[in-house]
Each structure stands twice: as C-alpha cells, then as structure tokens.
Amino acid sequence: MSNLVNDGLDCTIRLGELADASYIACRLANVAMQTCASPNYLALHGMPETLADLAQHHVVHYVSGQQGKIMPWKFLGQSEEVEQFKNTHATQVNDSNALLFTALSGLGIVQMPDLLLRPYLARGELVPILTEVQTPTRPLWIIYPQRQFIPKRLAVFIEWLMALEWNE
User: Fold this and answer.
1) What distance in Å separates the CA atoms of residue 25 and residue 92, rounded to the nearest whole number?
2) Are 124 and 149 found together in one domain?
3) Which domain holds residue 16?
4) What is the pLDDT of residues 98-141, one digit of tens each?
5) Which of 111, 106, 153, 145 is nearest to 129 (CA)?
6) According to the UniProt entry, where is the signal peptide (predicted)?
C-alpha cells in the first residue's frame, strides 16, 4: 500500500475492501480467488480433500504490508456464509510475487487471484485444490488522488482498464 501523493504516483490497483476514503476509487471487477499448490508439493504432502485438511498442510499467507495482519483465506460454506481460514504458524509474505514464488517452489499452498494464476495453472505448474468449495470474489479497484484535473495519460489508462474483460 502506498501513499499516492507522497510517492508521486498517478494511480494504484488494489484488491480487496478499501479502508482509505480520501482517494477516488473505481471498481474494475470482482476477481475470483483460487487455492492451489505445485505438483511437487502435492506429491510430497498429499491433496487436501476438505477445509479441515488445510490445518495439516504448509500454507503461505499474504500479510498486509500497511496493516501487518494476515489476510485470511475465504471460502463459501454450505449456507453461503463466508468461512475464514488462517493458520498463524504459516509462512507469511507481504508481496504477491513472493506469494506466487512460494507456491511455484513447492513451499506450500496459497490462495491468490485467479487472473494471476491462470498461466501457471494452464501449464500445470500449479494445481487447483479444494475446487468443490467456492471462494467469494474480491473487488479490484483503480485508485487515484482526488484532483480537479486528471492528467490525460491517467484518464486514458483508466478508460483502458475499465474496458478490459477481467474475468475471461
């Protein structure tokens, strides 16, 4: 998470619920989440069959850099209620690239946005797990400082992002 004005950024893209209302935020999409692991990890540790099985596995959680808290995995239960999974003894990272790398390296199970995982799933470098359990989507936002004048380059970029088909 960055301070757009202090860091000299025109905009940022964020996933999840927003806490800071001092910026303009436009929802780009609702992004599906995917729980997965590498084939090597699954060969060594087995395939979890239920949510309860996750407690016996190595998991890697994303930690919010600004808030310093573990972002729990979310699943939809039988009654459409959101169930959360958080293992405090898990490996923790605060960077999405590091989260992806831990999964590809066979260090554990991760939950990440499907749109980031698609090429690795298609090549068989990662395997989806617990596919019978749905995960709620998370909102994807473009955020920019509130200004009277939006630079043309930013306006064009926002327009381009809004036109993308995020959930193909």
Assistant:
1) 28
2) no
3) 12-30+139-163
4) 999 999 999 999 999 998 999 999 999 999 999 988 888 999 98
5) 111
6) none
